[in-house]
TrEMBL record, chain A:
Pfam families: GFO_IDH_MocA. The keyword Oxidoreductase applies. SUPFAM superfamilies: NAD(P)-binding Rossmann-fold domains. GO terms for molecular function: nucleotide binding; oxidoreductase activity. Gene3D superfamilies: Dihydrodipicolinate Reductase, domain 2, NAD(P)-binding Rossmann-like Domain. It comes from the Bacteria. Keywords: Oxidoreductase. This is Gfo/Idh/MocA family oxidoreductase. Residues 4-123 form the Gfo/Idh/MocA-like oxidoreductase N-terminal domain.
Amino acid sequence: MTLGVGFLGAGPVTQAIHLPTLARLGPLFRVVHVMDVDPAVAAEVASRVGARSTTRVGDVLEDPGVDVVAVCSPPRVHTAQVEAACRAGVRGVLCEKPLATTIADAERIEAVTAATGVPVVVGAMHTFDPAWRWARTETMSWGDVHAVRSRIVNGPNARFEDAATEFLGRPPFPRFDLDTPEAVAAFLRHVILTLAIHDLPLVRHFAPIVDEVIHVDAVEPFGWLVLARGGDTTVELTGSKNATWKPDWTFEVVSADAHLLVEFPPSYVHAGAGVAAVTTRTGTRLMPPEDHNGYEGEWRRIAELARGVRTDPRDVQAAVDDLRYAVDLAEAAAARALTGRAA
Amino acid sequence: MASVSADASIAPAVASVVAGLPLSLAWSTGHADVYAIDGAAPGWAARAAAAAAAGARGVLVVHPTPVAAAELDALDASLTHTCAVLDWAYAADPATALLRTWRATGPGVLECTSYAPLGADVDRELLEVVAWLLRAFGRTPAVLTRHRLLHGERAVGRLALIDGAESALLIRIVMTDAVPPALVVTWAGATQRLNARVFPPDTARPARVTLTDAKGDTTLPAVYESAHRTSWKRLLTFSGRPAHGDLADLRRCLAVLR
Ligand SMILES: NC(=O)c1ccc[n+]([C@@H]2O[C@H](COP(=O)([O-])OP(=O)(O)OC[C@H]3O[C@@H](n4cnc5c(N)ncnc54)[C@H](O)[C@@H]3O)[C@@H](O)[C@H]2O)c1
């Protein structure tokens, strides 16, 4: 059975990430309806895939051909759109990260999925990347982990978007002046909830509780550093937007006798899975190469859920808990920036 | 040809350098021209001062560890005809000095991770990282805030790689027996990146230093010379002259650690 897909929001992520991914997945999905507040964007993107277009959310949710709703709008409207999709009784919702921007909103989503039974998957692609799946299994028997680090050095998105699609309607890249504590706090919130959030479910796996944010820093134009601690485990989030050719998106975990390094490809591109390596005294084990990345994985998951092949109620629960973790960390980092003291 | 004597604890490391500089160094049978002092053993500054007082033209301190200011003062005072060279594990690596001509164009995020075995001495590891920063960039952080951990330490602050543009600095002393010791440095600014991986001085395994911009990577030449041998060569060029530069550097680094 081919599942009909309706998009809410048809910006860079829909164009560069999801349409190429769905094309690769073949008959599993067919895009039937594309909604965007910009009618030109909606119409143009819809025409690429032979879908209907609209500027109204209701048109997509009422479309009997839509089985799965993909929420790819700006984060502030995610909650309302996920709620509306669940209430409309679709078979499944794929919501781009972040699921919501506040914990109260995430709890609303938890409630609506519980009430309607509609599965929701968050497009946190690293949690679906074969490199992470491999790493999670490999590290299952590890003793205490004492360091978890996510580093995201990435070029301007356009560089990667242009490698994946041809563009219509690209929004300007947000600029941050970092000359006041308030500005740094806002920047860190933004970075944690839009960038670091990709790795936070992985971080949470090894450091489920963060006791304090010890230190934060930010440098213009777009560099960040967050040092936090949960028990004896440090959590470090670092990175920058960087106009060199070379991205560096790495996730590192260290215990007394084992070391994990995962290298992820940049967002947007379709360059296969990340690469994971576990090193101990006896040597290094590398995961086997995989051609698909987390983008395919998240769509395969929503397909299984929408068809009832898999009924795993923990998807939403985990997504809400992941978001709680991210929001708490973002708030603690912002508080640290404002007061200079741990929150 | 300089005659060499060394603390017994570091004699094997010194022996391999002596074998690698056969026309310049030889083990002494009596009075030694140069003394190699084990900087990891307590009282190294006093032993170095004693060697200078005994007429050594040079003292080489292998892996210096933190020392009290009064001991450094005494050592300084004794160096009227003797040069002192500090043989750092990472900072003495020959590739580190190559970075001195590199220029950052703005601020960035600087991460230095020293992977060290479980139970390593955090003060010594941190001192090594700060010494590396000084040797590589000619600067030390004005303030470093230290956070001691069960298996290591984090130290945070800022380092201006160029005037007026401070980079955010994170120093990680990560203790694990999983990976061999190394110092791994990454810096990312708006338009440049720097990556360095420096290995301990026991072998001539070359550091890997890569400078990146929009056009591609520049990898600095691999130098197949151990940091120990590089330090000895420095000592030989200074020998007999009272060179206090390394001790001044040590004071700068120790000031940051306090
Ligand atoms: N998974 C990833 O790698 C990744 C990468 C970047 C962004 N994202 C996420 O994907 C989502 C979309 O990102 P983007 O960069 O395409 O976003 P964007 O902000 O550029 O906007 C996407 C589109 O949404 C439209 N829009 C605005 N308000 C809308 C509304 N109320 N309803 C429907 N559409 C509306 C805009 O006109 C635009 O075309 C965001 O939630 C973002 O956090 C994911």
